[in-house]
């Protein structure tokens, strides 16, 4: 049986380990800030994809 909508969804970004942060107040360049931005972008794109799939499967 083949899938009608084969979609390769990449895994979400990996959160950084606590030791990866230098605690020097890097601001937007902090590994945790970079992760939060990447995760927000991933979540938005994933949500758009789910919406498109739902629209395609609506009779």
TrEMBL record:
InterPro entries from the UniProt entry: Oxidoreductase-like_N
All copies of domain Oxidoreductase-like, residue ranges: 7-47
Superkingdom, taxonomy of origin: Bacteria
Name of the molecule in the record: Oxidoreductase-like protein, N-terminal
Species for this entry: Moraxella caviae
């Amino acid at each position: 049986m083949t899938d009608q909508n084969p979609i390769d969804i990449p895994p979400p970004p990996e959160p950084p380990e606590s030791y990866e942060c230098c605690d020097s107040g890097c601001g937007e360049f902090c590994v945790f800030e970079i992760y939060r931005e990447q995760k927000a972008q991933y979540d938005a794109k994933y949500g758009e994809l789910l919406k498109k799939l739902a629209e395609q499967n609506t009779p």
